[in-house]
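Case study.
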Amino acid sequence: MTKNLVIGIDLGGTKIYTALASLSGEIIAEVKVPTQSTLGVTGVRQNIIRTVERLTAETGLKGQVRAVGIGIPGPLNVKEGVVYQAPNLGWREVPIRQILEEALKLPVYIENDANLAAIGEHLRGAGAGVKDLIYVAVGTGIGGGLILNGQIYHGAGFGAGELGHMTIEPDGRPCNCGNKGCLETLASGNAMVQKALDLVKNGRGQSFLAAAGGEPQKISSYLIARFAAAGDKEALYVLEAAGTALGIGLANVINLLNPSLIILGGGALKVGRFYWEAMEKEASRRALQAAWRQVRIVPAGLGDRSGLFGAIALACQFETPGVSRQTS
Amino acid sequence: MTKNLVIGIDLGGTKIYTALASLSGEIIAEVKVPTQSTLGVTGVRQNIIRTVERLTAETGLKGQVRAVGIGIPGPLNVKEGVVYQAPNLGWREVPIRQILEEALKLPVYIENDANLAAIGEHLRGAGAGVKDLIYVAVGTGIGGGLILNGQIYHGAGFGAGELGHMTIEPDGRPCNCGNKGCLETLASGNAMVQKALDLVKNGRGQSFLAAAGGEPQKISSYLIARFAAAGDKEALYVLEAAGTALGIGLANVINLLNPSLIILGGGALKVGRFYWEAMEKEASRRALQAAWRQVRIVPAGLGDRSGLFGAIALACQFETPGVSRQTS
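After joint prediction, the assembly is written out as follows.
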């Protein structure tokens, strides 16, 4: 019997998003469950396995599955199938490929989640047919994936694409990575919240502090966005500062890589147009003119499924007859 | 008769460096003449032609030349053979390939000079055998060339590699490109001079000002380097500030591209170890740990001939039987 289905999994810090799909990438069924990262590697492994079993049992297509592709939020070794570190999962040196292959009795392929989102957008999203594109995920943090000459670019150790850790302000806020003034500390969802908390500490931002019930830790980027949309000047300032920082980071990437497309995805983009407009204004100012004329900056075309479609593609690509398992 | 020689030309703002070489890249004869860019396109064209004629006449090998490869200091279109802009030459929209092909009656291939230096180093310099490397030229300005997956990476419009125009200080000194706080304004040879002039303006740097005969415009990066080597604190400060800025820029590139090698070339590196040490210290601090472990930073292996060897390779590569003229 020919096996003609694959499983794609987008493993995030809060949700596991799993789909059963055809070899041409069409989704047949999908399921989303909480990751429950506090349960540790074993617990998350169990949750992953359950999503796969649920999809295959529900559809009665278990015997048809050829391979599994999974996206992980952190640096990893694609070749060895090992996750070096996934802060949002609390993982360190986890041989996830082996763990899942033993449990699922299927070939498993792993890749960084931002890289898979880039692949998903490249294959069937906003970047379809584009040879050189950068996918930027703006969420709690900032990650990225590079498609160069039509292929994902891994770099020397599968670490390429970390534009969230580009220094934007040499003497800026400390970043989790140990550096200071990283793009992530200035332009991410978390950066917006930090900036708002700075205002509150100085007796400003009283409008959104009140809306958060007077509890600073309840201020979210969405709350700030709501106030900005209503014309609150301090909320606007927070979004514009973050958007400006993103614009500097993107201009740096544009000057270095001269891409034809930058695709922005991730939850932090839901804060509305002020963030996007500040980004565009600053990027247009700082990018070299020729490179700026050659690039478009667009939102992700697949919404929150960019990574899922990438994971499906990852599972498919190695299953083409004559193509062996990726080794570089 | 089989034609088995090529001409490589490294066209700079001050010198034209031309070589006659075999198809395996061995230099048979070379010549260096002043560019005389003030003579305009026609004058520079004449000087280029003269270097070619001198080499072929001297060696009696004129009939053996198959093709010419030339590196140009500025953005250009490799495919159309047109230089968009070469500030150091005063060129704008110059169809240099056509101009030289008509004069030399030979196929001519053009490429950005930093890209050719990257290719030269990749083929026979410090980057031999390395798949992913960044070549950075630190001279009056800062340019770069990217070898990714073993090939020069052009980007959407042949503009990739412009890391000199990465923003390092958002509110920093204005750059020729129109942006502020570019790496080039902080870490280049010219940036060192500007920093020294800032000191002089504030009544400091009197030692090197005196050595320049009291004339600020005679302060050069080499003069500063001489004083730094002798222990002058203010000269040291200038070199360390420039090296630190370079370190930030390189860390950004390391985080984004995860290269296995960065090769530094160009005249400004002749200022001595203080600049290099400050660069290394800052880059190690700011790069992500895994990416830092995977990268080496080394000086160019071919000295001032990196670009020349790249130009020779450019002329050779299209002359391999079965390989057609580059179209992308």
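Observations recorded in class. DSSP finds eleven helices and 13 strands in chain A. The radius of gyration of chain A is 20 Å. We will return to this complex in the next lecture.
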